[in-house]
Amino acid sequence: MSTTFTHRNLPRLLLQAREAVMAHTRPSLREHALSDQQWRVLRVLGEHGAVDTGRVAREAFILGPSLTGVLARMERDNLITRARDPADQRRTVVEATPHGMKLVKRLGSSIEAHYDWMEKSLGKAKLAQLYGLLDELIALEQPSP
């Protein structure tokens, strides 16, 4: 017996959209031996500078246990440094190294060029509408306080 659904599979569509966009980004990441997760960490650090690991986890959407391994590999590869927060020794602060920031700038340029192409293809208004709808969906699905 099959079940008839009224609505399209939104999670699958969102994953398909993500994969379609990432198909343009991954080759550049792989050229620099970066995983998707490592790029998300570098992007967070490129946008915000030195931040605590909790913020990296939240903004890069990487669970704590996975983040530990990702950061260890990135530190080994001289992409980031980790240090105890002088104000709170329980917290660890992560910062991109000069090498890591060089990659953020280099990859950021090609990624921004792809976003410019999407904006030209879809139109500025449609891309802004897409961003707005995604922001609304994210807010709608947040747990109530």
From TrEMBL:
GO molecular function, one term: DNA binding
SMART domains according to UniProt: HTH_MARR
HTH marR-type domain location: 7-139
Gene Ontology BP terms: negative regulation of DNA-templated transcription; response to stress
Database matches in Pfam families: MarR_2
The organism's place on the tree of life at top rank: Bacteria
PANTHER family named in the record: 4-HYDROXYPHENYLACETATE CATABOLISM PROTEIN, TRANSCRIPTIONAL REGULATOR, MARR FAMILY
Protein name (Swiss-Prot/TrEMBL): Homoprotocatechuate degradation operon regulator HpaR
Source organism (scientific name): Variovorax gossypii
Name of the encoding gene: hpaR
